[in-house]
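Marked as duplicate of an earlier ticket. Keeping the data here for the record.
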Amino acid sequence: MPLSHHHIRTTVDAYLARHPHEREQLGVLLDALDRTGEDIASRSTFTGHVTCSAIVVDQLGRVLHVLHLASGKVLAPGGHTEPTDDSLAAVALRELHEETGIPPRAVTAWPGYETVPLDIDIHDIDAHPGKGEPGHQHFALRLLFRLHTSTEVPVVLQEDEVGGIEWRPVDRVTSPTLREKLLKLPFQVEPETANASALIHNDRGEYLLHLRDYFPGQIWEPGMWSLLGGGREPQDATLEHTVRRELAEEAGLDLTDLTPFGTEYATDDAGATVPIAIYAGRWNGDPRELHLTEGVMLAWFAPSDLHRLRIADTTSDLVRRHAARNPAMRSGPEPEEERLASPHGTVPNIIGVHLYLERPDGTVLLGLRHPNSAFAPSTWHVLAGHCEQENAIACLIREAQEEAGLQIERQDVELVHVVHHIGKPRNPPRMGLFFRARTWRGEPKLREPDKCLQWRFWDPTALPDDLVPYTRLAIAKIQSGELYSETGWPA
């Protein structure tokens, strides 16, 4: 299937989450992404279009370059997208194979760069009247791979386009921005094994779960309900390729769109922590019609059904988090129980936990929410999350670790403010619990770039203008020592 606008957009957003200082210099690319009806993956879009390069590093830390005959320049292998390319990584790998003969199975995505480019560059391309091409710009996305074989890979050059190849040390990489980023990489780190699973949901808000075979000692989580997925294999260039291959092999499923959702930190039989990349996708089919090759069965379950299943806590929490952020799509009238009841009725209140993290200099941690966030897009907010099947402090500790890599101990947490607020008239009321962490370990990191673009400590007397209103209120109340406030309720 052709590259989707959404896939390109989320990839660029993830890149900017790591390099927010490059937002201005990539403004022309962001403007192109904001224009509707324009296919920036197509080479015939002369307002500017996407190209992809494969940055391949060998066992000695050298970077692959090719001599492009058309331009006379020594560059990384790469080129335009084709309608058959299903991902940006697939473009880079196809160009690598076409130009050098190096097959995709000979490389693997660099750990941590499976879905995020190492570098994005915008450069001008001269007009070619003979081809009917005016001058335009290339939005070059550079994907990072490692040659994972110690044996020599045979090279077969694309003779009409490539004049030769060269493995250059990092300090001689031709692109300055690429060279700068490569010099910061820990080249001694070997690629890690990785796992990927699919969080598949339907329009009714149900989730597809897989009942595993009961073979204790032979398979992981025997006899338990889990997500479809598995471990990365040598032919998988990215973790998205891993999850797509597993879906096809285990159930014959081919989903149009899969979006990175987060990482599940599961525990294996030996007690070791296993990171699992989670990709979310929507499907409305009947699981009984799928051809299941592993396990016992597939079935839909609502989040409210999970308590009666034999399922790992991490998987159950993952489903509930996704459900809280992605309400079911329904047609027809709203269910009666979801409507806001009269003031005399009983209305369930949503509980949210918020981390008030204040450094010794008095500055307070805020995060800039992703432009695609359902709540407060492109707005600053404290680190926060919804309580699930857990107590409030456990939720706070989990969210701090998942979102920012912060380690907080229960005994170091104190409640400093409660705000009872309501948004639009039909929204359910919410109770926001603000907890102060007296001490913590670690510095804020972007663990979920699809939700938060950057972390920053702000002076409480000079907070950003685009701050969630009830968060501004809560910070002011905490500063003055007040424990409770209300906002959004009718007078």
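See parent ticket for discussion. The first helix runs from residue 5 to 18.
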